[in-house]
Amino acid sequence: MANKLKIDIISDVVCPWCIIGYKNLIQAIDELGVQDKVDIEWQPFELNPDMPFEGEHLQQHSARKYGSTPESSMNFRKEMTERGNEVGFTFDYFESMKIVNTRDCHVLLEYAKKFNLQTELKLRLFAAFFSEQKDVSDREVLAKEVATVGLNVKEAMAKLDDSYALKATVNRASEWRQLGVSSVPTVVINRTTGVSGAQPVKAFKEFITSQLAAS
């Protein structure tokens, strides 16, 4: 148990299950008291890589992509709101809410990693999109969130027009897909063993315990 477990969380900032899964994972880590034995890194996954700049109305998106009816979409929002309350996260769905392109978010998250501010930025983006009715594809919004977590705004935002940074982020997301990740959240330990979905706290505790014992 001397070595730290590398925990990769593959997710997208417009995925409600991803923040629920993260909250459960952190609770599992806290209850086990192994905060010093794990190292978390967020990995990019674009749920809608071809989403146009203007985005798509959430209800229309759900109907087109998942075949959701207005009733099932409403029930899903209600369920997520309740689940969010259970883990201390606010989902504030609203009538004109859109699903947007998140590629810029992922480029910024890759940048934030260098300064150990990746989780702080990820949580800010989750809150901005789901709790604060913000468009996380809007670069003015992103600049403010970058500033909020203490990153250099000018340097960070320059990455969004850096073809190398963009290519590196897209390639990283592609690598995870090639490794078999097809849904999010997916939590992978030491690049060898993973679980998909917003697992309950108990399941995450069992997963981490087994991997610590094997390390």
Task: Give unreliable regions as ranges.
Answer: none
The CATH topology annotation reads as Glutaredoxin
CATH superfamily: Glutaredoxin
Query: What is the total domain count?
Result: 1
Could you give the order of the helices and strands?
Answer: EHEEHHEHHHHHEEH
Q: Give me the number of helical elements.
A: 9
What gyration radius follows from the Cα positions, in whole Å? 17 Å
Mean pLDDT: 96
Strand order of the largest sheet: 2-1-5-6
Q: How would you sum up the major sheet?
A: 4 strands, mixed
Shape: globular
What is the strand tally? 6
| SSE class | alpha+beta
Share of helical residues: 40-55%
Keywords:
two-stranded antiparallel sheet, alpha+beta, 215 residues, Glutaredoxin
